[in-house]
Amino acid sequence: MKQQTALVTGSSRGLGKDMALALAKKGIDVIITYKGNKEDAEQVAKEVEALGVKAAVLQLDMESLGSYDAFIQSALAAIQPWGRDKIDHLINNAGIGGGKTIADATEEFFDAMLNVHFKGVYFFTQKWMQHINDGGSVINISTGTTRFRNPGYSIYSSMKSAVETFTKHVAAEYGNRQIRANIVAPGPIETDFNGAAIRNNPQLKAMLGERTPLGRVGVAEDIGGVVAFLCTEDARWVNGQRIEVAGGINM
Prior knowledge:
This protein is α/β, with parallel strands linked by helices. It has 8 helices and 7 strands; from the N terminus they run E-H-E-H-E-H-E-H-E-H-E-H-H-H-E. Helix content is about 40%, strand content about 15%. Strand 4 (about 85-90), helix 4 and strand 5 form a beta-alpha-beta unit.
């Protein structure tokens, strides 16, 4: 098989970092993006390269939709020395945290969540499709809270629900190019996302762990391997699916 390339948005830390490392372990080269912390992204790149594959680091602000065209050109230029003019896998992982009750929600907060979690994912994917090799894949990261209620997450969860619907349309419209599109929906994960809400709250962490049949909350390393699997030939018949990686919480 030819050497493959994956782009993982928001991969300087947390879930995205583990996705990049898991892909590298599968022998897939990785484009790593960061919003503000270049040092962290470059450290991830070093860890990826230590696994024997190539890595590139680029800045990306998903909220800035007008920057997408320039970003794509920069990404394509970065992989040109690798002998490639397209990528094989697009993993839309970048996101912002935050929860507000319906009563406290503001239009400004709504628009920020919309731009990053749905509008951004929609148009970023649209612009990339012509630059993804036939037989490649798109993986959109969603959340377990599209299936069960979490107080204060009405906006975030609604955006992710929209992404899940969008993903099925990508699967349908690009299937003629053998491009697969799937959703990975993590459950409660102990990372620094959303102000490290789970990590910094022992009571919340314990409560969520007790509700999970496996007796704990998730960690970043629980997610990356599932994403990497979906980028391999072993997942060639998995298309238009939502895979919840949540330890069985709220079955």
